[in-house]
Amino acid sequence: MRQGRGGFTYRTMLISLACWCVLLAVIYVIGVMRVSSAEDELAGVKARIDSLNSQKDAQLKLMASVGSSRVGAATKNDLAAIIMARPHWSRVLRELTRSLPPQVWLQSIKVLQEKDEEARLEIAGKAKSQRQLTNFIMSLESTDLFNKTALLGTKKGSDKEAEFEYDIITTPILSKF
After folding, report:
1. CATH code reported for the domain at 87-176
2. What pTM was computed for the model?
3. Contact partners, residue 31, CB within 8 Å, separation at least 6
4. Considering only CA atoms, which of 78, 105, 90 is closest in space to residue 172?
5. Helix (H, G, I), strand (E, B) or coil at 118
6. pLDDT tens per residue across span 102-124
7. Residue extents of the structural domains in the chain
8. 3-state DSSP call for residue 29?
């Protein structure tokens, strides 16, 4: 090995090894601190959830006690019917994604519902080909869970991508979910 000021000696190797060890130790300490911070934050979130659940339970008990004294049986049945008739959106979304061909992607889903109308879904996304989009629309209609499915429009994507954007509107038959 060469001796001198700019030479690579055992001393410079030991110094560089020590620097690497210090750098790795600093990176490890930062990682441990981030994990500890995340655990503390998670514990805070869990405590907040427990607090909200206890508040919810207290409100439900209060509502049940007030409801039993002031609300008649017919009103309770009406309230139960409304709660039981609410849409099961997770099932709707599951069926919607099951109908997706491999080259069709969802970007957004909006629920549109005006007074005294059925809930409609406005679906926006991207597709690789017109054929795949047609297959998606046909599979929605063939499930008997969606009706009035219509393509609102398509738009060519950017020049770099071969895909295009689409907008579809459909009405889920909520009674079947």
Report:
1. 3.30.70.2830
2. 0.48
3. none
4. 90
5. coil
6. 888 889 988 887 777 778 889 99
7. 1-86, 87-176
8. helix
